[in-house]
């Protein structure tokens, strides 16, 4: 082997060692960052679950009223013939002529 080939092989070896160490370093950094992200995600999920439970407890009465309202069917508006014959309706007296 010539001297230039030895220098070239040494340079290639240094390049691959540097490249491999860079990959290992980035992989370890990725594992550390991922661990912190998973812990943070778990912490945030627990915090949101607690907040949701507190809100559920605080608005319990409102939620119960909403559920009752959903269970009761809404009344439908009266038809025209029912409005005319209904004594509680304003339209029942709209045709009446009052003498003053």
What share of residues are in beta strands? under 5%
Number of DSSP strand runs: 0
Terminal CA distance reads: 128 Å
For the largest beta-sheet, the strand count, sense and barrel status come to: none
Radius of gyration: 39 Å
SSE-based structural type: mainly alpha
Transmembrane segments: 6-33
Keywords: Membrane, Transmembrane, Transmembrane helix
Descriptive terms for the model:
rod-shaped; 74% helix; transmembrane helix; transmembrane; membrane; 3 helices; 0% strand
How would you characterize the overall build of this protein?
The chain has 100 residues and is mainly alpha-helical. It has one domain (3-72). The protein is built from three helices and no strands. The chain has helices spanning 3-58, 60-71, 80-85. The radius of gyration is 39 Å and the shape is rod-shaped. The protein starts with a helix and ends in a 15-residue tail after the last helix. The model has no long low-confidence stretch (mean pLDDT 87).
In short:
The protein is mostly helical and 100 residues long. 74% of the residues lie in helices and 0% in strands.
List the helices and strands and how they pair.
Layout: H1 3-58, H2 60-71, H3 80-85
């Amino acid at each position: 082997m010539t001297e230039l080939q030895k220098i070239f092989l040494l340079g290639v070896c240094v390049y691959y060692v540097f490249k491999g160490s860079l990959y290992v370093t980035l992989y370890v950094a990725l594992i550390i960052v991922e661990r912190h992200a998973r812990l943070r995600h778990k912490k945030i999920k627990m915090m949101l679950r607690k907040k949701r439970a507190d809100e559920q407890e605080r608005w319990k009465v409102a939620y119960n009223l909403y559920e009752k309202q959903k269970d009761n069917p809404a009344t439908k508006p009266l038809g025209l013939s029912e409005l005319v014959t209904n004594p509680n309706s304003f339209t029942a007296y709209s045709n009446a002529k009052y003498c003053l």
